[in-house]
Amino acid sequence: MESRFNELCSKHFFDGLLFASVTDRDGVVVLKCKSDNAKEDLMEPILSTTFAVTNNQASKLGLGNNKSIISVYDLYQIIQFIDTPFIINIIADASSNTGLFINLGNNLLELTKPLVESMIEK
């Protein structure tokens, strides 16, 4: 699974992908792939834990369960997907094609599906 994860992610480095990871709600990294252009401290564990809280609050809007959150900053965009018990984090250049990374996130959701199912069964 790790080699397929790296393969899916690394082909998007040219498109502006800097970092992708699968973490649990506490920020513990299960899988990760980082571009050589990414800063060392780009992905902090607090990002996943903050997302978990934000996702919980967004789901209270009465619109159903929240599946993803996209945040765009001056230099970066962060796209996060929830697939309980895991969070998929994608960090890319702010000027990159967001739709491309949403598609990558959906591919990563499919890739991690067996892992999610095995965790839910326990």
TrEMBL record:
PANTHER family: RAGULATOR COMPLEX PROTEIN LAMTOR3, REGULATOR COMPLEX PROTEIN LAMTOR3. SMART domains: MAPKK1_Int (SM01278). This is Roadblock/LAMTOR2 domain-containing protein. Belongs to the LAMTOR3 family. It holds the Pfam family MAPKK1_Int. GO terms for cellular component: Ragulator complex. One of its GO terms (biological process) is cellular response to amino acid stimulus. Coiled coil: none annotated.
